[in-house]
Amino acid sequence: MLKKILKWTARTLLLIVLLALGYYTKAYISVQGRLKKTYAIKPLNLNITSDSATIALGKRLITTKGCTDCHGKDLGGQTFFEQKGMGRLVARNLTRGKGGIREGFTTEDWVKAIRNGVQHDGTPLIFMPSGDYNQLSDTDLRAIIAYCQQAPPVNRVHEPCDLGPGAIVLTDLGQLDLFQAEKIDHNLTPPLAVKEGVTVDFGKYVAQVCSHCHQPNMKGTTGDHATPDISSTGISSKWTDEQFFRTLRTGKRPDGTALKAPMPWQMTAAFSDTEMRALRTYLKSI
Ligand code: HEC
Ligand code: HEC
Questions:
Q1: What pLDDT is attached to residue 223?
Q2: Can you list the residues of the chain whose pLDDT is less than 70?
Q3: pLDDT of residue 120
Q4: Ligand 1, atom 28: closest residue by C-alpha
Q5: In this structure, which topology does domain 46-193 adopt according to CATH?
Q6: CATH number of the domain located at residue range(s) 198-286 in this protein
Q7: For a designed S-S bond to 76, which of 156, 206, 209, 250 qualifies (C-beta 3.0 to 4.6 A apart)?
Q8: What is the domain partition of the chain in residue ranges?
Q9: Which residues, judged by CB distance below 6 Å to any ligand atom, belong to the binding site of ligand 1?
Q10: In terms of pTM, does the model score above 0.70?
Q11: Distance 71 CA to ligand 1 centre (A)
């Protein structure tokens, strides 16, 4: 009797292992296919000028658009996630130093990477949040590229991104969003410039950088890496304007609790008064 039970248990376990291997093979092949898929992007001729006003704007934007949160204050890049079984996420070195942007990286390559999340050869970048940057105005994009192209060289060589079995399974199950190029409408025409002011429209423009975490509708997410609802139905809409601004400038809520990572309050701390007020107006309008 006992022998029979053991035999059946062993058979069941073997079956589970085989099924798991079969599923993993399918997930692996599918994710590799998505990594190798190429996207045809219409080339855009952005004339980059490096006058002092453009460079000053670019310097501000690399903070307010969150670039420095991942690529570092000096743009030298960093490994911002590494876990056994899951893999490694590396924001690349964007400077001309050792380990930086490769020789011959054109303005068109910059545009494709930032706006489309796509590399020179057409394959997708991993985890680069281009969905938030796809509608950056030409003026802002130009300033960001101009600033990056003249940023002081940083010599820092990184290991490349690596997707472990955990990341492959989660990506296959749709629990992890690694390839923003898949979701972007590459045919949309971004605005040439945006009009700054305390308006819903400008607030919506500012809030684009919140969407990869709080969702495009700003209603947040539930589950493992939950983010709160920051629209008119969220708790933060009950705060006074002053409390809201102070929270995003200091990283501390009105009740004294800290905004935990990955909420990038160093990014929102750099927002101008107009950006803050416009953002608030927009969030309350949703
Ligand atoms: C959430 C983190 C994150 C943010 C925010 C972010 N990036 Fe990235 N970026 C990445 C990662 C990760 C990669 C590398 C992807 C890969 O290796 O496939 C990358 C790659 C790039 C590349 C390609 C570099 C190369 O050598 O091919 C450029 C250019 C770039 N980012 C610019 C920017 C700019 C400009 C901003 C701000 C407007 C920005 N990134 C914001 C994570 C980020
Ligand atoms: C990289 C992901 C990420 C981005 C980008 C991001 N947030 Fe957050 N945000 C979070 C997380 C996570 C929390 C919850 C932090 C905690 O639990 O303390 C949060 C919390 C908040 C809160 C507190 C809400 C509450 O109910 O307590 C506000 C307000 C907020 N974010 C506003 C913004 C705005 C505005 C932007 C864009 C300008 C933004 N966030 C961009 C991840 C993000």
A1: 81
A2: none
A3: 93
A4: 113
A5: Cytochrome Bc1 Complex; Chain D, domain 2 (1.10.760)
A6: 1.10.760
A7: 156
A8: 46-193, 198-286
A9: 65-67, 69-71, 89-92, 94, 101, 110, 113-114, 119, 125-129, 133, 144, 148, 161
A10: yes
A11: 7
Asked whether the domain spanning 198-286 has the same topology as the one spanning 46-193, the reply is yes
The count of other CB atoms within 10 Å of the CB of residue 89 is 20
